[in-house]
Amino acid sequence: MALRSISRRFGSRVLSYRSSSVASLHSHATSFGFQQVKEEEKSKLVGNVFTNVASSYDIMNDLMSGGLHRLWKERLVGKLSPFAGMKHLDVAGGTGDVAFRIFDAVNSVKRRALRKVDEDSLEETQIYVCDINPNMLNVGKQRAAERGLGDNKSLVWVEGDAEALSFDDNSMDGYTIAFGIRNVTHIEKALAEAYRVLKRGGRFLCLELSHVDIPVFKDVYDLYSFKVIPNLGELIAGDRESYQYLVESVRRFPPQEKFATMIADAGFETVEYENLVGGVVAIHSAIKL
């Protein structure tokens, strides 16, 4: 597909061009790790993985990334620029990690003072945490209760499928998905749903493990991924197979440029991505105009 314009700056790459029909895309998510599976089987297999890892998900993220996932999520929320009164959808966000950061940003004393936000606007803020796995949502709800946010009306927990969201068209100011889109069966359907629920001017942001293209670093990263992470999963979570899948799923996910193209093909404009840690993760962003 011909691109109308591509520009590069400081490791970020920007694509801007009109989209073609989403229906013309082929699914890039018909595998379960390195195994080929039937499409109708994948969601169940992935569901089993996250049911198994739910209770140890946060500690394993800390161990696998050396705590860097916290900084990556802060970067994601910084790009979102949350505001009081916004309606935001965080997909595959069951444990609440991204939602809590958005909530904190909206309620920041400094931001409230700078923007002169009134209490009514804060009360109107709605952050929907949508996850297909009830076990992950239960972890998030428990964490919310521990933070004293168990009954907070700004946080809404919803069991739902990224490929068939239950939200109205043009209803959200922002959409985030962190470390989740590579696990859906049809990436293009999830992107189409993100586009559908966003308002005009709404922001799409995706944080995902991606592809390292620095030769020596890539070798080290591959060694760490395939030799260390599954062993950590077995040691800490008692589950080697789930973490073997998580490592393999990253290699099956489209490279940064290709995923950016898929986002544009879903209808989004001003598509760009930023590599972090040499491409270990990438943040893709776009706007619905």
Describe the protein in words.
The chain is built from 11 helices and 11 strands. The protein is of the alpha/beta class. Helix 1 packs across helix 10, helix 3 crosses helix 4 (97-106) and helix 9 (215-237) packs antiparallel against helix 10 (240-252). 45% of the residues lie in helices and 21% in strands. The model is unreliable at 1-14 and 16-29 (pLDDT under 50). Strand 10 (269-276) and strand 11 (281-287) form a beta hairpin. It has one domain: Vaccinia Virus protein VP39 (Rossmann fold). The protein has helices at 39-53, 57-65, 68-80, 97-106, 109-115, 119-124, 134-146, 187-197, 215-237, 240-252, 256-265; strands at 6-9, 12-15, 31-32, 35-36, 87-91, 126-131, 155-159, 172-178, 198-209, 269-276, 281-287.
SSE blueprint and pairings:
Elements: E1 6-9, E2 12-15, E3 31-32, E4 35-36, H1 39-53, H2 57-65, H3 68-80, E5 87-91, H4 97-106, H5 109-115, H6 119-124, E6 126-131, H7 134-146, E7 155-159, E8 172-178, H8 187-197, E9 198-209, H9 215-237, H10 240-252, H11 256-265, E10 269-276, E11 281-287
Parallel strand pairs: 5-6, 5-8, 6-7, 8-9
Antiparallel strand pairs: 1-2, 2-10, 3-4, 9-11, 10-11
Helix pairs in contact: 1-10, 3-4, 9-10
